[in-house]
Amino acid sequence: MKKIMTVVGARPQIIKSAAISRCIQNAYATSLNEVVLHTGQHYSDQLSALHYNQMGLRQPDVILSPAVHDSAVKRMADMTSKIADCISDHKPDIVLVYGDTDSTLAAALAANMMGVKIAHVEAGLRSHRSDMPEERNRILTDQVSDYLFAPTAQATRQLQYELRDRQVTIVQSGDVMLDNALYYKAHAQKPVELTALSEPFVLFTAHRAATMDDRATFMQMLACVEELLKHSNVVWPMHPRAHAQLERYLGADQAKEWLNQTHLFCIEPIGYLDTLWCLAHASLVCTDSGGLQKEAAFFGKPVLILRDETEWNELVENGIAVLIGTNSNLLKNALLQLSQTDGSVITSLFGSGQAADIICQTLIGKTAS
């Protein structure tokens, strides 16, 4: 039996990990023993515990205390050191990481330095923006990983090119989030805060530093919301960072007035099952999130991306999504050209919902059927 240490640190990673944890429990419990480590990077009832409870997941075996440092370098060093201690204690055969957060890179570095094999789920994605922390994290993680599970053909080709001189296992597994969407969609639930909501509505989310931390960009993003409100209700599960910046840039009184606009439903962060309900019923998704772009497509919904680039280029190339940055004029034009997504396109891009099984079979040394 192989021992897997799954490392998560942020909401999307918890959700992604659910697919593989479920697969291990249901089909590979005699072959894979999983220990789950939460780095504490984003641990809170709203951003982490909510998802464990709502999705029926067991709590992590280890939850680290988040490092309190002003320096990103010191935070990374502290996290890497703590993860290394856990690797030493639990002695996994493979450290399994997801995506592109600081937790992803810290775990990969710790495992690499300790001679433990690394499996990277959602490998090979590139936005080609060297100034993005996520881009740095995903590239460096891919460089030290032994098993690379690419969600798409484009990601697979990227890895084959970058790692052509290394002996590594590259597998086009499909996307574990499609596994989850298919499994959990029957359990989707309407958030209680949206009792008075009528359709149609736009699901809007924003949380990235590039969207939040510059006043001019943030104000342009608010203009995009105001433009959407001319056409539809807007549901915005507001990330704590966005709420803080709203008050910072507008002042407390004006921020309160802005939030009280007609047809605007600003609510607390919601769980995965609530998000699935919103995706299923929204007419459109507007987001700066990498994951939500793709999940919207799983539900056949068109997407406006509040960025100038995306790591999911397939969405743009296939007319599923439009890059608008935070430009409300581009948003207006994009509203005229978006259409619902053909489900067969999604299957051809992201697999058939069996990614977790392919990953598990690869890790135990079998050839996925």
Topology record:
Layout: E1 2-8, H1 11-27, E2 32-38, H2 45-54, E3 62-63, H3 72-90, E4 94-98, H4 102-113, E5 117-121, H5 133-144, E6 147-150, H6 153-162, E7 169-172, H7 176-184, E8 201-205, H8 209-212, H9 215-229, E9 233-237, H10 240-250, H11 252-259, E10 264-267, H12 272-281, E11 284-287, H13 290-298, E12 303-305, H14 313-317, E13 321-323, H15 328-335, H16 343-350, H17 355-363
Parallel strand pairs: 1-2, 1-4, 2-3, 4-5, 5-6, 6-7, 8-9, 8-11, 9-10, 11-12, 12-13
Give an overview of the whole structure.
The chain is of the alpha/beta class and 369 residues long. 48% of the residues lie in helices and 16% in strands. The protein is built from 17 helices and 13 strands. The strands form 2 sheets. A 7-stranded parallel sheet has the order 3-2-1-4-5-6-7, sandwiched between helices. It is globular, with a radius of gyration of 20 Å.
SSE-based structural type:
alpha/beta
- Report the CATH topology name of the largest domain: Rossmann fold
String of helices and strands:
EHEHEHEHEHEHEHEHHEHHEHEHEHEHHH
* Largest sheet descriptor: 7 strands, parallel
- Catalogue the unreliable spans: none
- The percentage helix is 40-55%
Strand content is 15-25%
Q: How many separate domains?
A: 2
Terminal-residue CA separation:
21 Å
Outline, from the CA principal axes?
Answer: globular
What is the averaged pLDDT score?
92
Number of helical regions: 17
CATH architecture of the largest domain: 3-Layer(aba) Sandwich
CATH superfamily of the largest domain: Glycogen Phosphorylase B
